[in-house]
């Protein structure tokens, strides 16, 4: 029986994402890295608009996209609480559910967002950042892309 090339390629891409998270966090446990990736993807997803959720997902590898959408209820998106504390609490709660050793949610958020930023188009990253409150944007890498600022009313009239 022949192998399905696309399936193998998607499994490999998923492993690349998990291993990138593992490397960023300097962890040896692949399952913890998987949990970290899943937790941050869900915390991010739950704070985006429906349109942005779908646009971001389109750039994810197939199995990572499945992970991203896992358990999603579009009727509850975006969450009303979009502050940094609830974002970090959601990440931390993912580790409690799995009974894995918890880690600092801030460190996890920063590491996973670095991995995402390295693998998603700059335009999509800018779109995502523009929708997030500043206190959540702070977890993106320091060399973050510029977030487009709305032009003033006078600048719009002049153009």
Briefly, what CATH class? Mainly Alpha
Radius of gyration: 17 Å
Low-confidence stretches: 144-159
The CATH homologous superfamily is called Uncharacterized conserved protein DUF2267
Order of helices and strands: HHHHHHHHH
Which CATH architecture is right?
Orthogonal Bundle
Beta-strand proportion: under 5%
Major sheet size, sense and barrel closure: none
What is the topology?
Elements: H1 5-25, H2 30-45, H3 50-57, H4 62-69, H5 84-98, H6 105-119, H7 122-131, H8 134-137, H9 153-158
Helix pairs in contact: 1-2, 1-6, 2-4, 2-5, 2-6, 5-6
Give a description of the structure.
The chain has a single domain, classed as Uncharacterized conserved protein DUF2267 (Globin-like). The protein is mainly alpha-helical and 159 residues long. 28% of the residues are buried. The radius of gyration is 17 Å and the shape is globular. α1 packs across α6 and α5 (84-98) crosses α6 (105-119). Mean pLDDT is 86; it is low at 144-159. The protein contains nine helices and no strands. The longest helix has 21 residues, at 5-25.
């Amino acid at each position: 029986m022949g192998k399905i090339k696309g399936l193998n390629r998607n499994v490999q891409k998923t492993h690349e994402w998990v291993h990138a998270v593992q490397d960023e966090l300097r962890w040896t446990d692949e399952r913890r890295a998987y949990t970290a990736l899943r937790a941050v993807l869900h915390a991010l997803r739950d704070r985006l608009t429906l349109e942005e959720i779908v646009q971001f997902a389109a750039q994810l590898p197939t199995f990572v996209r499945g992970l991203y959408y896992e358990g999603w209820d579009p009727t509850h998106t975006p969450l009303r609480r979009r502050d940094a504390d609830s974002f970090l609490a959601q990440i931390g709660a993912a580790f409690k559910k799995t009974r894995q050793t918890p880690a600092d949610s801030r460190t996890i958020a920063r590491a996973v967002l670095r991995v995402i930023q390295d693998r998603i188009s700059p335009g999509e990253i800018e779109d995502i950042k523009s929708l997030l409150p500043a206190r959540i944007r702070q977890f993106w890498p320091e060399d973050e892309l510029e977030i487009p600022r709305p032009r003033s009313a006078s600048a719009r009239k002049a153009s």
